[in-house]
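Notebook entry, structure prediction.
Reason for the run: the old model in the group folder had no record of what sequence produced it. Starting over properly, with the input documented here first.
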Amino acid sequence: MLPWPDSILNPNRKDHWAKKHRPKVAAREAGYYIALDRGVKLDAGKKYVVELVFCPPDKRKRDLDNLVSSMKSALDGMCRGLGIDDEMIRPLPDWGPVVKGGKVEVTITEKIDA
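New structure, fully documented this time:
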């Protein structure tokens, strides 16, 4: 479970980089510590599918692609905490129900090549 991404991390926002720095660091640390808390290390030589279920805080329309991009820092931190490189994951986004405060449910499974 990861927190809902800060709106300033949306790639369509054209804020100064310094304004985005703290939210990026906070998202990276959240992903890292949540992954560490799970106590799981993944095999760095394998590829994984990361299912991201976005449970928005309200019913406003949002672009799923932008939400995945907004999660980059959190996913980078999560991968670091799991002991893998972020190039080894493939995000698979979907929508979940509206929940107070919003959240992102994350499920990681090993990618099986056909």
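Summary: Strands lie at 2-3, 48-55, 89-95, 103-110.
The old model has been moved to the deprecated folder.
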